[in-house]
Write a structure and sequence with these properties.
Structural class: alpha+beta
Number of helices: 4
Strand content: 35-45%
Number of domains: 2
Helix content: 10-25%
Largest sheet: 7 strands, antiparallel
Shape: globular
Number of strands: 12
Radius of gyration: 17 Å
CATH topology of the largest domain: Pnp Oxidase, Chain A
């Protein structure tokens, strides 16, 4: 069977099997973020490696979130939110915000913007954004955002996730 035949078989059965799809994306490094917002007067946050830049003019970005996520009801109702781009020493923060069934904000290490959205202290940068669209795609939603404000720290390296492991990038990894 040729590679083309394999592709045709996957398409006929509804696409590439989830295990194979996940295996491909484990080999694709991604920056690590925490999405933070307020819902019913309480902070809500979760780890996301799906954040992408969509357009510089206007300043648009997006992320995906599973429809069954415990954070989805808050995102579904949100008008604005903040995206904190984690620094290379914040792997513990990423793990905490990826854990279900806990108060992810209880350990501290965050503050609120003047507009109320929570951001992670010590992050490389953050963006405050207005939710433009929530588009159902498969078992997830693609959430499109308009960036409204930003903050950046110089000289701080980002946290990267690759093959189920956190990594640091910097001068040592430059080509």
């Amino acid at each position: 069977m040729s590679a083309a035949d394999d592709d045709d078989a996957g398409e006929a059965a509804g696409g590439l099997p989830a295990a194979e799809f996940k295996r491909v994306f484990r080999q694709h490094p991604a920056g690590v973020t925490v999405i933070g917002l307020v819902h019913r007067g309480r902070p809500v946050g979760f780890t996301a490696t799906s954040v992408i830049s969509v357009s510089a003019e206007p300043a648009l970005l997006a992320f995906s979130l599973a429809a069954g996520s415990s954070s989805w009801p808050a995102v579904a109702a949100a008008e604005t939110l903040a995206v904190s781009f984690l620094a290379d020493h914040q792997d513990d923060v990423s793990a905490r915000f990826a854990t279900s069934g806990i108060d992810r904000f209880a350990a501290g290490g965050w503050s609120t913007l003047d507009t109320g959205e929570p951001v992670i202290d010590g992050a490389v940068s953050w963006l405050r954004a207005r939710v433009l669209e929530r588009t159902p795609v498969g078992g997830s939603y693609l959430v499109s955002l308009l960036a409204l404000a930003a903050g950046t720290r110089e000289g701080v390296a980002p946290l990267v996730h690759h093959d189920r492991t956190y990594h640091r990038i910097g001068d040592h990894s430059a080509i």
